[in-house]
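Bumping with the actual sequence this time:
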Amino acid sequence: MRKADLVAAISEKTGVPKVDVLVTLETFFKEVKGSLADGENVYIRGFGSFVIKKRAKKIGRHIKKNIAIEIPEHYIPAFKPAKVFVEQVKDNVDAMPGEEDDDE
């Protein structure tokens, strides 16, 4: 599902014009990004949390030059789904017909 599909689905289910849904969605994204950039996590009960994760410094390798480089510690955004969200996805995906794992 793309953003346009999401906007269309929300608009259809709520009766709100697509333009208003798009503006609301874009504002939501902007607020989440702004909060994370300011070092503040975003918690949405029943959905999940947008959090900031710290990556420790490590030694990497520049493949073309074959030299070791130090990658400094840095922070990245991450999403941690809520427990009820994870359970709902597990239940629905397990029930999908015709999908089998090929782990042989």
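The tokens above came from a reply further down the thread. The longest strand covers residues 48-55.
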